[in-house]
Amino acid sequence: MMSVTKQEIIRSAFQLFKKKGFLATSIQEIAEDCSIAKGSVYKYFPSKEDLFCQVFDECQTAYFDQAEHLKKTETGTPKEGLVKQIVFRYQYFIEFNRILVEFTELPITQDAAFRPLRNHVRARMMEWHKAWLLEVYGPQIEPFLWDLLFIYRAILKDYLLRILYEVKPLSIEDTAWFIVDKLDALAAHMTRTGSKALLGQSSYDAFIHMGSDDWRREREQAAEELLGRVTAALEVWPNGSARRKDLQEVVHLLGAEIAQPQLKRPLIQALCAFLEQEQELKSLVIQLKQIVLSERD
């Protein structure tokens, strides 16, 4: 049996994950591809999740290395450079979509070793987007930078899925120019109208640290704040004292249930559904329910 290095196992796993995806690839297949026993893989990687983390990290690192090189060799305008970055991003993510895109639907997103890696990559990607937006549009976008950044990220993500899964494929180049054209219009409009920002640095920090202990504490604080706003809204309830009393009792039950270490999800959903019948409370309760139930998933 040949002696195989850790890097050779990673290289084999990289190709198999790229071709078949995480779920469809087994440690046995990786071992066979390397002509080694299955146990030899576990000498280096305790689990398939650990091996995927290594592959994911190398795939992202290669992306940033190539994106940096593209930026250094760009000779056009900043806007042309941004278009080329979007084109490259889509080309790369399409090629490695089973590693870089499909993982979001997999159980590995809950893996303790994977979450810090994902947050690191997310932070690096957001910093990359932010730097490009400032380079193209200048300091005048700083008052609403975080909003523009999240809008840009959402557009990039959604159009990548359209390119991947539309029956009639979209042109990558046309899509890149379309996105930048819309960013132009949005940045110009927000600058001209003095658009009030909705998001700030704290929104950005919470996003890139999602899943951390600090993030969980912030979610708990947000849930408490929303519950308090629902309670305050009922203090000045204009639609009858009997109805207000019923709603206050439900809110009290909801608060008590939220405080439990193990949530009864059907009960939470039922209590929220009762409160959502009132239009004045609906938005607050929907936000509260989303925070409470998602943070325990």
Verbal overview:
The chain starts with 5 loop residues before the first helix and ends with a helix. α7 crosses α8 and α11 runs antiparallel to α14 (279-295). With 297 residues, it is mainly alpha-helical. It contains 14 helices and no strands. The chain folds into three domains: 6-45, Arc Repressor Mutant, subunit A, CATH 1.10.10.60; 52-204, Orthogonal Bundle (Tetracycline Repressor, domain 2); 212-295, no CATH class. It is flat.
Topology record:
Layout: H1 6-20, H2 27-34, H3 38-44, H4 48-73, H5 78-95, H6 97-100, H7 114-137, H8 145-165, H9 172-193, H10 201-208, H11 213-235, H12 241-258, H13 265-275, H14 279-295
Helix pairs in contact: 1-2, 1-4, 2-3, 4-5, 5-8, 5-9, 7-8, 8-9, 11-12, 11-14, 12-13, 13-14
Features:
single chain, 297 residues, Arc Repressor Mutant, subunit A, Tetracycline Repressor, domain 2, 3 domains, flat
How many distinct helices? 14
Compute the gyration radius: what is it?
Answer: 24 Å
CATH names the topology of the largest domain as Tetracycline Repressor, domain 2
Kindly report how far apart the N and C termini lie.
Answer: 44 Å
* Tertiary shape: flat
Arithmetic mean of pLDDT: 85
Q: Could you give the order of the helices and strands? A: HHHHHHHHHHHHHH
Proper CATH architecture of the largest domain? Orthogonal Bundle
Largest sheet: none
Our estimate of the beta-strand percent is under 5%
**CATH C-level class of the largest domain:** Mainly Alpha
Please tally the β strands and state the result: 0
Helix residue percentage: over 70%
Q: Structural class, from helix and strand content? A: mainly alpha
Task: Kindly give the count of domains.
Answer: 3
Seen as an oligomer or otherwise, the chain set is single chain
Extract low-pLDDT stretches.
none
Protein name: Transcriptional regulator
GO molecular function: DNA binding
DNA-binding region: 26-45
InterPro entries: DNA-bd_HTH_TetR-type_CS, Homeodomain-like_sf, HTH-type_Tx_Regulator, HTH_TetR
